Amino acid sequence: MYGFRSCPYCRKSYNYGRIISGRGKIRSCCYCHKKFSVNKKSRLFILFCACVVMVIADVLLMLLQPELKKDTFRIMVISDAAVTALCFAVSPFFVRFRNVTDTADKVQHDLHQ
Q1: Alpha-carbon distance 96 to 22, whole Å?
Q2: What is the distance in angstroms between the CA of the first residue and the CA of the last residue of the chain?
Q3: Average pLDDT for residues 41-64, to the nearest whole number?
Q4: Could you read off the pLDDT of 85-95 as tens digits, one per residue?
Q5: Half-sphere exposure of 111 (CA within 13 A, CB side)
Q6: Which DSSP letter does residue 99 get?
Q7: Cα–Cα distance between 26 and 97 in angstroms, integer?
Q8: pTM here?
Q9: Looking only at Cα atoms, what is the longest distance across the chain?
């Protein structure tokens, strides 16, 4: 279910760098040159959930500690930064590639015949 994404047509895997650097909702496969759509909503949902959990943990820590010490604040900031960086690092594993029916190519193909 989770792992490196592959082309929905030829099943060639995309490496980590291509998933991160790729822009746009519709891309072409560099192997078979067919078009597919990219869905990044689950990636953003995971990041949002992690941020909500971090905020809840920080608020609970502030409520439980009557006096917020310098070391406690540092731990909060470092742990929040580490979780955010981890979410961005694993986010390419949550990108989904889906088939696209390209009607323009079919029309062009029918016109040429």
Answers
A1: 13
A2: 41
A3: 87
A4: 988 888 777 77
A5: 6
A6: E
A7: 9
A8: 0.63
A9: 78
